[in-house]
Amino acid sequence: MTPRPSAIPLTKAALDHPPTATGQRRLVLKRRAWLGGVLLVGTGSAYMVAAEPPSRMVGFIILNILFYPLTLGVTFLALRRTRRNAAILKTYPWRAYPCEYPHRSLESPKVIRIKFTDNHAPTLRFTPFSVNLKEKQNPRPDMIWFAGDIRYGGVVSPVGGHFPVRVVPDAPREAVPDGTPEADELAQRADLVRGGKVRTT
């Protein structure tokens, strides 16, 4: 027997739900602020290097060369990934499903297991950053709102749709249910699949 979803907004797309639209805007603003902060740090570092003799700044320069490009790249990519979130939320409506949060070590990414049907309860990984979704203003930790394709992942939020987070299959090679041509077309439009490959970011 397939679990019955709980009450969800009767909208054609998840992004039409006002709390979801607000949550998505908040996510974009937060990541823009991160990018702005990283750029300010880079500007300050360049000023310090220019103001001091290079011999006194060798260690600082090496640290900047090693870590700044990586930090800038990760922050920029995280901001770009919000577009994929928006594409998914514009394509799919919210659905509600039972869920649980399997225990992982501190070093492992946090994951969620969603029971889409009795025969399909995949483990999905939060991306690009781990998040403890169970504690994010979550009135029903045993339920999750999901927008996406049950085969390829999508976006989840605590009940209410206010905190959208991207999820991808934790084991992308796992067997998935067959889909219809219409479902395959939606997955392509939402950029969940490209060139026959599941997008795992």
Concise description?
It contains three helices and eight strands, in the order ααββββββαββ. With 201 residues, it is α+β, with helices and mostly antiparallel strands.
Report on this model:
With 201 residues, this protein is of the alpha+beta class. It has 2 domains: 18-89; 92-198, no CATH class. 38% of the residues lie in helices and 18% in strands. α1 runs antiparallel to α2.
Give short descriptive properties of this protein.
201 residues; two-stranded antiparallel sheet; six-stranded antiparallel beta barrel; 3 helices; 38% helix; disordered N terminus
Beta-strand proportion? 15-25%
Largest sheet: 6 strands, antiparallel, barrel
**Taking strands numbered 1, 2, ... along the chain, how are they ordered across the largest sheet?**
1-2-3-6-5-4
Q: First CA to last CA: what distance?
A: 32 Å
The computed structural class is alpha+beta
Query: What is the residue-averaged pLDDT?
Result: 85
Radius of gyration: 20 Å
| Tally of domains | 2
Low-confidence runs? 1-6
Oligomer: single chain
Write the layout of secondary structure elements.
Blueprint: H1 18-51, H2 58-91, E1 95-100, E2 111-114, E3 123-127, E4 143-149, E5 153-157, E6 165-169, H3 181-189, E7 193-194, E8 197-198
Antiparallel strand pairs: 1-2, 1-4, 2-3, 3-6, 4-5, 5-6, 7-8
Helix pairs in contact: 1-2
